Amino acid sequence: MTNIWLPLTATALAAALTWWCCIRPMVKNRSCCTTAADTDLQEELLRARDELQQLREGATPPAVRHDRPEILDR
User: Which of 21, 22, 23, 64 lies 20 to 30 A from 51 at CA?
Assistant: First the structure.
């Protein structure tokens, strides 16, 4: 029975360290690896979404409707 306490303790310690160092920061949205590149990426994504929205608003349907698909590589 005493031979099982060491592996159980080591497993519990590993689980506790994993929670404290990895899972807890992610749950609270405070990752330990935040960099300026993350904010640059978020800004770039925001600009791309704005551009996509502008393109969708400015899109117009074709003037002549065809019964078959238009071939673009003539």
Answer: 64
d(CA 50, CA 14): 45
Count of CB atoms situated within 10 Å of the CB of 25: 14
Q: Which backbone phi and psi does 8 adopt, to 5 degrees?
A: -65, -40
Output DSSP code: residue 54.
H
Kindly list the distances between the CA atom of residue 57 and the CA atoms of 20, 54, 68, in Å, as whole numbers in the listed order: 47, 5, 26
Sign of the torsion formed by the C-alpha atoms of 62, 64, 66 and 70: negative
Cβ pair 25, 32 in contact under 8 A = yes
pTM: 0.37
Between 34 and 7, the higher pLDDT residue:
7
Domain ranges of the chain: 12-56
